[in-house]
Design a protein that fits this description.
single chain, 475 residues, alpha/beta, Rossmann fold, 2 domains, 6-stranded parallel β-sheet, 14 strands, 14% strand, binds nicotinamide-adenine-dinucleotide
Length: 475
């Protein structure tokens, strides 16, 4: 029986390995992590991440050919294929701080694999890493010259949180990069291809050299984020001119050369990947003597930051230029619907912006725990052009706990609120009883829709003053 071990039981490692276990009953899959609480949760009824369909997949395989464990070394030693799916956040200090990927977790995983291995292994980069990382990993794996063969493959993950299981079941493509120039490399590529071939059609499995696979992942995320920043930049122009961004993006997306996906204007993109991967790309360009290319991609993040600031400024200026002491209902905190993940969610910057003008926030999100929100709102954030006194100023821990209340439904959040601010496109926000909500708010009652989920016309009829991203303003 082929044995797979995945180091890192996070948003990627957990779901990807659960799907491999489901689709390949002849393969034994161990998912290992240094976090005791995460592994305990994977082995419990309440999984550590919310992802539609994930519970079902895990229940079907757990204890049969899918295992979650803190015994990292033992499971790595026994595996034929070791996936490494550890986090690769942006470096916060030292060389490349604020841009380069922090590969500390990757390096320690690679050193451990080298130390505990007694048999040959295929080591798979599942994490998103800078192009050329495999070169450094090869050196680490072979440094102690044990005579064991390590083949390194790049197999970046393209799943999107919120649709991870559907994406894994039916991927647009699976990308496998390896040392195509060697027999060992070709054999390793085939071994991994055979795993995916259990359910992915051959023509969707793309095999490339290592550097193409590593760079393709960074490039794909940069392109996706670029589309969002492009439509968001147009949304600002829509508001200034009376054009409607929904109509514009529909018309633009109907061009088959452009396509309709990822063209929804919003308060900004979030999630653990887009910003970090573009910063990483920027850093790699700079290191390779390509400052103009670096500046091009940097602009995608600058527009994203601008969009969040623009939203906060619009909200404050609409409410007589101050939200001091006013109650603002925040609907949605996760970075997108159908996930509880709050990493880099625009809600953090928007809430901090409102708190810096001394607003009182009442927050509701169907999947994010109160402790997580409080932690997110207390932590400082890297902001490359933050100005003292700007809306991105970071509030202190004390002001957060005094000014933020977390509640369990949208009606509780909006009761007595001066304004409603929608920051995540959860389906339930489309169909709230907005008449009832309006009746329970002081007047004038405002709605600031950062995700274009509400029916603007209907809400205006009820009496709300509505600002929706990229839509013509209230008459
Ligand atoms: P995560 O933080 O949810 O999970 C990483 C896990 O690795 C953590 O549980 C951590 O405890 C564990 N870990 C770190 N070092 C370890 C070690 N030495 N031994 C054992 N466990 C260790 O991160 P994630 O969201 O799953 O992302 C993982 C990688 O996949 C990142 O590089 C990310 O860029 C990439 N990626 C993420 C997504 C996404 O949507 N989240 C999508 C595609 C790719």
């Amino acid at each position: 029986m082929v044995k797979i071990c995945c180091i890192g039981a996070g948003y990627v490692g957990g779901p990807t390995m659960a799907v491999i276990a489901l689709k390949c009953p002849s393969i034994e899959v161990a998912v290992v992590d240094i976090s005791v609480s995460r592994i305990r949760a994977w082995n419990s009824e309440k999984l550590p991440i919310y992802e539609p369909g994930l519970d079902d997949v895990v229940k079907k395989c757990r204890g049969k050919n899918l295992f979650f464990s803190n015994e990292v070394e033992k499971n790595v030693a026994q595996a034929d294929i070791v996936f490494v799916s550890v986090n690769t956040p942006t470096k916060t200090s030292g060389l490349g701080a604020g841009k380069a990927a922090d590969l500390t977790y990757w390096e320690s995983a690679a050193r451990m694999i080298a130390d505990v291995s007694k048999s040959s292994k295929i080591v798979v980069e599942k994490s998103t890493v800078p192009v050329k990382t495999a070169e450094a990993i090869e050196k680490i794996l072979t440094h102690n010259n044990k005579g064991i063969e390590f083949q390194i493959l790049s197999n970046p993950e393209f799943l999107a949180e919120g649709t991870a299981i559907a994406d894994l079941f039916d991927p647009d493509r699976v990308l496998i990069g390896g040392r195509e120039e060697t027999q060992g490399g070709l054999k390793a590529i085939k071994t991994l291809k055979d795993v995916y071939a259990h359910w992915v059609p051959q023509e969707r499995i793309i095999c490339t050299n290592l550097w193409s696979a590593e760079l393709s992942k960074l490039a794909a995320n940069a392109f996706l984020a670029q589309r969002i920043s492009s439509v968001n930049s147009i949304s600002a122009l829509c508001e200034a001119t009376g054009a409607n961004v929904t109509q514009v993006s529909y018309s633009v997306g109907k061009d088959s050369r452009i396509g309709p996906k990822f063209l929804s204007a919003s308060v900004g993109f979030g999630g653990s990947c887009f910003q970090k991967d573009i910063l990483n790309l920027v850093y790699i360009c700079e290191c390779n003597g390509l400052p103009e290319v670096a500046n091009y991609w940097k602009q995608v993040i600058k527009i994203n930051d601008y969009q969040k600031k623009r939203f906060v400024n619009r909200l404050v200026s609409s409410m007589f230029n101050t939200v001091s002491g006013k109650k603002i209902a925040i609907l949605g905190f996760s970075f997108k619907k159908d996930t509880g993940d709050t990493r880099e969610t625009p809600a953090i910057d928007v809430c901090k912006g409102l708190l810096s003008d001394r607003a009182h926030l009442i927050i509701y999100d169907p999947q994010v725990a109160e402790a997580q929100m409080m932690m997110d709102l207390s932590l400082p954030k890297f902001d490359w052009d933050s100005q003292p006194g700007s809306p991105m100023q970071i509030p202190t821990d004390e002001s957060v706990s005094q000014s933020v209340k977390v509640v369990h439904n949208a009606y509780e959040a909006t009761k007595d609120a001066h304004a409603i601010c929608i920051l995540t496109e959860w389906d339930e926000f489309k169909n709230l009883d907005y008449k009832k909500i309006y009746d329970n708010m002081p007047k004038p009652a405002y709605v600031f829709d950062g995700r274009n989920v509400v029916d603007v016309g209907k809400l205006r009829q009820i009496g709300f003053i509505v600002y929706a991203i990229g839509k013509p303003l209230d008459p």
